[in-house]
Amino acid sequence: MRRRRPAALVAALLAAVAFGTVPATAAEPAAQPHQTGWAPKAPPLSTPWTYQVGPGNALPEYPRPQLSRPRWQNLNGLWEYTGGPAAFRASTPSIAEYKEQILVPYPPESALSGVQRHDDRMWYRKVFVVPPDWRGQRVLLHFGAVDQIATVWVNNQQVATHSGGYAEFSADVTNALRGSGSQELTVRVEDRNDINTFPVGKQRNSPGGIFYTGSSGIWQTVWLEPVAASHVDKVDIVPDLTSFSVTPKATGADGQRAEVVVSKPGGPEVARSVGKPGQAIRVPVPDPHLWSPDDPYLYDLTVRLRDAGGRVTDEVRSYGGLRTIGTVNDAQGRPRIALNGRTTFLHGPLDQGFWPDGIHTAPTDAALKFDLEQIKKLGLNFVRKHIKVEPARWYYWADKLGLMVWQDMPSLVVSFDGPPGPAPDPVPEAKAHYEQGLTAMVDQLRSSPSIIGWVPFNEGWGEFDTQRIADKVKAQDPSRLVNASSGVNCCLSRPDTGAGDIYDDHTYVGPGRPQVKDDRPIVDGEYGGLGLVLDGHVWPGPPGAYEMTKSQDELTRRYGEVSDDLLKVVRDNGLSGAIYTQTTDVENEVNGYLTYDRRVMKPNLAVVAEHNRAVIAAGSQ
């Protein structure tokens, strides 16, 4: 049954088409038939993709583009579920105790899950069948992310435990499988959300203002794949301007050789090299075609394991982009950020990655891609992924569309109720969880060419040992810049000690006017925050922004004024980057380019894009 749209919403959509950008799918959302008794809940705001989601198409895309194999099985869809006080138990619930169904991988708090509440402890159950042609292979079970403490059983045998809400994890479940029939997968998750010592970013049990609804449990794709006993587990790719350094990490590959082949996209081979699994293999690329936002060229990579007789025991597909990121001095001797050896101004939005229907989980892959496409249409070349880690496909789209990315580490819980000045150090357990998560994040995302920098801390939230943490990240990944403390000038931040590669100023509405003081480039890591309320597109609760405007025309005019001021700072101060708050409205924050439901581009797209391109041109050489 098709839902009817209220007249006000139809009028708003027509206006949005004229003023900004609305995806074509927004016009006629198709409700999914549900024959199981499960149904989604009604979100406070729907997106153009909300009613396209159902048990038969819950994020069906291959979830790991930089390490792909042709055979796999998606376990997204309906799972049995139980939560609440009854779930606080050590023993596995009986089948009869699973009273609900949940649509995985949407978090229980989301409308798309069909549950729409937070449970401190959750039990999930799924029955699956291993395809017959997988016989004789090892079977790996993968979780994109589970928030926060997960224990996994297959056929009542424990196969994995994992803590931390943002990192992927896997288990070889072969020995737990029984015959060729049905297999039982059970997952127990505990997540107290912001009442814990784990990094949580902006998730809160009591959201409001700059903090948002939390996401618990399974919130990224769950899937299976068959592999040989000798197989590649991971491929680390470090590019420069003429070659790839590829490290294939493998299981059961003693005595074998690793072969790396670089090809043009969908085309012929251009280079290959051979080496040992677990060691870096350099592959020089003739006539290199570099990756940049203006030309996001990606080479195809194939990695094979070969035994002593030359037989291929495993093969995986990947991709990479040739590029470097570093610093150079401009004509005035000021340090500037340089992509591929050339001064390149970083201009883009703060991007929170929240959704009104899926919260931490975008409703569809098209929706995930949509936000990044809008950033490109806005004339921008950069994104700061703000204290959240996204699924691998988000970085794939950033790589493919051509957007440079700063990746924040999700912060520990922070309180603003204390005395003025830097916040006290987190407790030792929280520090340990933070460092574990930070190391896992860098390791997981290090091969994405779009990522050009890591941001360990934001405005002092949960900050500790700043110099040591910055040095630790740099040692783990020397190929990228480290922005040790974004917003070092404000809030709960520690005094600037010169840690990291960048000095980062936060000023609202701004722009800020930092001055070069050492060999670090200067950036406006946050500025803007111009707000506009559009009826029919607002989350329940009091809306907020750093400066409110009354109309789309006024918002466009003020954006132009702030951009003109930013242009002067770029020229006068040698600014290397500026990050506008923000891509979309998020819950009660109404300072996005787009409304939270992604249905309306609030300022005039063409005018804003012209200003943005002018700023990038002024700050680049």
TrEMBL record:
<dbReference type="InterPro" id="IPR036156">
    <property type="entry name" value="Beta-gal/glucu_dom_sf"/>
</dbReference>
<keyword id="KW-0732">Signal</keyword>
<dbReference type="Pfam" id="PF00703">
    <property type="entry name" value="Glyco_hydro_2"/>
</dbReference>
<dbReference type="GO" id="GO:0016787">
    <property type="term" value="F:hydrolase activity"/>
</dbReference>
<feature type="domain" description="Glycoside hydrolase family 2 catalytic">
    <location>
        <begin position="367"/>
        <end position="488"/>
    </location>
</feature>
<dbReference type="InterPro" id="IPR017853">
    <property type="entry name" value="GH"/>
</dbReference>
<dbReference type="InterPro" id="IPR006102">
    <property type="entry name" value="Ig-like_GH2"/>
</dbReference>
<keyword id="KW-0378">Hydrolase</keyword>
<dbReference type="InterPro" id="IPR006103">
    <property type="entry name" value="Glyco_hydro_2_cat"/>
</dbReference>
<feature type="signal peptide">
    <location>
        <begin position="1"/>
        <end position="26"/>
    </location>
</feature>
<feature type="region of interest" description="Disordered">
    <location>
        <begin position="28"/>
        <end position="50"/>
    </location>
</feature>
<keyword id="KW-0326">Glycosidase</keyword>
<dbReference type="InterPro" id="IPR013783">
    <property type="entry name" value="Ig-like_fold"/>
</dbReference>
<dbReference type="InterPro" id="IPR008979">
    <property type="entry name" value="Galactose-bd-like_sf"/>
</dbReference>
<feature type="domain" description="Glycoside hydrolase family 2 immunoglobulin-like beta-sandwich">
    <location>
        <begin position="252"/>
        <end position="323"/>
    </location>
</feature>
<protein>
    <submittedName>
        <fullName>Glycoside hydrolase family 2</fullName>
    </submittedName>
</protein>
<comment type="similarity">
    <text>Belongs to the glycosyl hydrolase 2 family.</text>
</comment>
<dbReference type="InterPro" id="IPR054593">
    <property type="entry name" value="Beta-mannosidase-like_N2"/>
</dbReference>
<dbReference type="Pfam" id="PF02836">
    <property type="entry name" value="Glyco_hydro_2_C"/>
</dbReference>
<dbReference type="InterPro" id="IPR051913">
    <property type="entry name" value="GH2_Domain-Containing"/>
</dbReference>
<feature type="domain" description="Beta-mannosidase-like galactose-binding">
    <location>
        <begin position="119"/>
        <end position="191"/>
    </location>
</feature>
<dbReference type="Pfam" id="PF22666">
    <property type="entry name" value="Glyco_hydro_2_N2"/>
</dbReference>
